[in-house]
Amino acid sequence: MEIIALKTFEKVAKEGGILAAAKQLNTVQSNVTTRIQRLEEELGTQLFSRKGRGLELTGPGRVLLEYAEQILQLERQAGVAVRLAGKGAAEIKIGAMETFTATHLPPLLGALRECCPKLKPQVMAATTAELVRAVLDHHVDCAFVAGPINHPDLMSMDVLNQELVLVQPKHVTPADNLVLFREGCVYRSKALLWARDYRDSRYGLSELGTLEGILGCVAQGLGVTLMPRNVVELSVYREQLTLEVLPDELAMVPTVLIRHRSTPRLKVIESLLTSLRWLPDQAATG
Questions:
Q1: Homologous superfamily assigned to 84-161+254-278
Q2: How far is residue 120's CA from residue 116's CA, in Å, rounded to a whole number?
Q3: Which CATH number fits domain 3-80: 3.30.70.120, 1.20.1290.10, 1.10.150.20, 1.10.10.10?
Q4: What is the annotated signal peptide range for this record (predicted)?
Q5: How many CB atoms lie within 10 A of CB 157?
Q6: Is the pTM of this model over 0.85?
Q7: pLDDT tens, position by position, 39-76
Q8: Do 191 and 244 touch, CB atoms closer than 8 A?
Q9: I need a surface site. Which of 59, 159, 173, 276 has the fewest CB within 10 A?
Q10: Are 124 and 93 in contact (CB under 8 A)?
Q11: 10-22 residue pLDDT tens
């Protein structure tokens, strides 16, 4: 099986069709069709079946996709390892929660660049649920997520503890509304538990995509939120907000670094782990 054939197969599987895959691969449809046909001939089985105007994986196709993702991840990481060994430019794909991206990732990347000057980090900011899936699908090399994470295919390492606080506007009475990240955010889940177990009011729900968007709307009285203390203290809206301590079962949320158990431990990942010492101790204050 050729790497280009596996890359094409993966794109068709993810996009659900030849045309969409061809656009992603920047090639013509006939090339995609030919590669899939040759792969099916080589394996002696049908990998896709028609579903309406698109394609879906057959049973053998689903099996191949699982292996293809691992093979392509290994192929990419082999290139990274070789380029680093030759002191050339190399990439690492790092996932991180929005809060970690805003507060802790910049100094960490700075320390990592000192260790590997020609490293080219790529960052994916998303919710914990999205990042766990990205690591499982080999779309990122590692990710900083809210823990604990218990999955047989993942390895995790404790990084720091975050203290969640109740964030309310200082100058206006807040609406009975929770201002939160989208589904998949651990802080969102904590906020819903808080509203259910510690408040009698029925709260509405507003979803926003950025930290400052959430904190800015809370400052104007749109509602309340739960957020790590250090994130709020660094916000431009800090003087317009009040912070309230939460019960321990809601307040303390560990941040962990996860990677896929089947992924070889690259030297660049070792450098990343070494760079974690640059992070401030958040165990007490979040």
A1: Periplasmic binding protein-like II (3.40.190.10)
A2: 9
A3: 1.10.10.10
A4: none
A5: 12
A6: no
A7: 999 999 999 998 888 899 999 999 999 899 888 878 87
A8: no
A9: 173
A10: yes
A11: 999 988 999 999 9
